[in-house]
Write a sequence for this structure.
């Protein structure tokens, strides 16, 4: 095997590990923080579903990052792609470590894009960057937390109207919570049709796969949700139903996260693989399944080795989050992330999740949120790409001089 | 530093509920002191009045803690200002109880007619009711938020607020009655005893006044 390919694989795996350790843990933390699942259960759920999401649903984003941001026809020398991919992966990893030290809610997606743009500009100047596409991508970053917030706002309002405002909130919760889970499976079923079966028509996917899956899951969930204790307090009853619901939605988040974020780690690996196997850059090659599996595995290992500890501290700290809120965050964030992943938009899962929390805050659903987080996210938007780009540029230059 | 631990700040409601418990405790202790006063058990009355003073200090400390934790950087389900003013009013309930205790400690009671005594005790009992209702109101406010401001929970909160208002007006009535009685007892009461009793009554009615102010704030918190 090409030694450069081997190095890239190792770096890609390390990046996947970092994604699992930080991002995955962040996205699973709502369920852990609201006491719906223990950190141990979270590791099992994340391990299986991050892998599933990465392996089955993780293709089109990979190509967007690799092909969309830089103009591949300008890279004529295959070694550039190899060195560049290594530089981008390394730069993203280094920036992630720095940002974590400063407590910035940094996005792995944004870091890797910064890394790619960085080496691209050193190699061929600003003209190589597809600025139109870059603009779209940056816009999607700014929009994604906002859409997450809007979605969470309305889902929370709908939840209040359909459950808490009813005469018998517990009975309404029994009826409505399977509805929401069913809706999640409409999205998952449609994704299955498009991603795994490579269906082209969205309508067909929704009608033939999404809706039947949703309806089936609705009835299964309805049958499963039983309350065996006598409920004296309707609010506690509703929360205890949603505690069970959150077990499912946390899996939904893990699936969406795997589908979306695996590309950050394996995009560059796929690029180097294309060079190693065909000797040319810029050609459209499908991402081999084993590379997706590698990414999924890396994320799963990251969750199990380090993410576990992250979730344990979160589980001890957040007690203010109730299950209905946790559910709203899970459902909105995962849906936004999955749809973005389908559209090929490389967005940040962490930012969408934070956006969803803010959305519930705006609906007066959370008792206290630290507004500083909004400032931190905006800082991370402006800082991540330039810094990761700069680090990547330096590494790339060094590799070119040495090689 | 993890995003999650940064994102969620501590809700002020749990500490507010704790504060209201201490306030209730203060008023209950005051009522016991009044009963000791009624019996003429001076030692016990003094001991309890000092305890009221101590509990008020505890309430003060919790108040400070809550104030320090309520940074303007928080995004809350209710306005920060409403929480702060509510806390201030809830704390004033304990302050009023402490004022009453002070009057109990300051003067050795002389001979006070039973009918006056019983009016004071009645006012004490009603004050406990007011403090209990304030506690109920803040617990209910927590539920209102939990339910996403559901109509049903808001109605329940209004019921509690109305009850606080009716207790306040009842104490007001008792206060007026007592003033009339004391002033009519020209010869029977010494100037000092009369002055002391009127002040006990005034501070006691202050307890429910502040309870009512606190309830007013909760009403504002629920406004959408």
């Amino acid at each position: 095997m090409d030694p450069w390919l081997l190095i890239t694989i190792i770096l890609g795996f390390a990046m996947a590990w970092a994604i699992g350790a930080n991002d995955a843990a962040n996205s699973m933390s709502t369920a852990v923080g609201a006491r719906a699942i223990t950190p141990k259960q979270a590791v099992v759920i994340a391990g299986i579903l991050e892998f599933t999401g990465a392996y089955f649903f993780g293709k089109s984003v990979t190509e967007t990052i690799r092909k969309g941001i830089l103009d591949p026809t300008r890279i004529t020398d295959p070694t550039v792609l190899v060195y560049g991919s290594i530089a981008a992966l390394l730069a993203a990893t280094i920036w992630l470590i720095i940002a974590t030290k400063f407590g910035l809610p940094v996005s792995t997606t944004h870091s890797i894009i910064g890394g790619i743009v960085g080496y691209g500009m050193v190699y061929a100047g600003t003209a190589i960057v597809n600025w139109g596409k870059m603009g779209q991508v940056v816009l999607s970053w700014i929009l994604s937390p906002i859409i997450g917030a809007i979605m969470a706002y309305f889902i929370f309002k709908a939840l209040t109207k359909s459950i808490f405002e009813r005469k018998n909130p517990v009975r309404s919760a029994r009826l409505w919570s399977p509805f929401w889970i069913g809706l999640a499976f409409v999205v998952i079923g449609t994704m299955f049709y498009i991603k795994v079966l490579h269906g082209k028509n969205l309508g067909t996917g929704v009608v033939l796969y999404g809706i039947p899956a949703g309806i089936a899951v609705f009835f299964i969930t309805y049958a499963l949700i039983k309350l065996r204790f006598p409920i004296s307090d309707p609010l506690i009853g509703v929360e205890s139903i949603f505690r069970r619901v959150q077990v499912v939605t946390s899996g939904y988040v893990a699936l969406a996260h795997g589908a979306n974020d695996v590309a950050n780690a394996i995009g560059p690996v796929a690029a180097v693989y294309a060079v190693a196997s065909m000797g040319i850059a810029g050609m459209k090659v499908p991402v081999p399944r084993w590379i997706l599996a590698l990414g999924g595995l890396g994320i799963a290992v990251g969750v199990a080795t380090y993410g576990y500890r992250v979730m344990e501290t979160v589980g001890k700290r957040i007690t203010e989050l109730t299950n209905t809120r946790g559910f709203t965050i899970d459902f909105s964030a995962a849906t936004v992330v999955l749809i973005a992943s389908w559209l090929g938009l490389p967005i940040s899962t962490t930012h969408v999740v934070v956006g969803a929390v803010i959305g519930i805050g705006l609906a007066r659903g959370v008792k206290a949120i630290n507004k500083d987080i909004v400032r931190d996210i905006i800082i991370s938007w402006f800082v991540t790409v330039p810094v990761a780009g700069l680090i990547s540029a330096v590494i790339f230059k060094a590799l070119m001089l040495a090689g | 530093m993890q995003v999650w631990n940064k994102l969620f700040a501590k809700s002020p409601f749990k500490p507010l509920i704790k504060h209201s418990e201490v306030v209730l405790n203060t008023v209950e202790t005051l009522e016991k002191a009044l009963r000791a006063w009624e019996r003429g058990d001076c030692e016990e009355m003094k001991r309890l009045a000092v305890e009221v003073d101590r509990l008020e200090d505890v309430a003060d400390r919790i108040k400070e803690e809550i104030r320090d934790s309520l940074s303007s950087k928080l995004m809350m389900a209710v306005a920060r200002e409403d929480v702060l003013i509510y806390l201030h009013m809830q704390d004033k309930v304990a302050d009023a109880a402490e004022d009453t205790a002070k009057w109990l400690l300051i003067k050795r009671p002389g001979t006070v007619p039973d009918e006056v005594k019983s009016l004071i005790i009645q006012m004490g009992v009603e004050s406990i009711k007011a403090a209990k209702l304030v506690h109920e109101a803040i617990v209910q406010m927590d539920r209102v938020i939990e339910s996403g401001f559901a109509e049903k929970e808001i109605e329940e909160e209004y019921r509690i607020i109305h009850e606080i208002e009716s207790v306040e007006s009842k104490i007001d009535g008792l206060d007026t009655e007592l003033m009339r009685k004391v002033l009519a007892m020209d010869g029977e009461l010494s100037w000092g005893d009369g002055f002391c009793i009127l002040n006990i009554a005034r501070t006691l009615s202050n307890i429910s006044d502040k309870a009512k102010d606190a309830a007013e704030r909760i009403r504002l918190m629920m406004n959408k």
Remarks:
- Chain A touches chain B through 41 residues (CB under 8 Å).
- Residues 28 and 250 of chain A are 6 Å apart (CA to CA).
- The beta strands of chain A are 368-370.
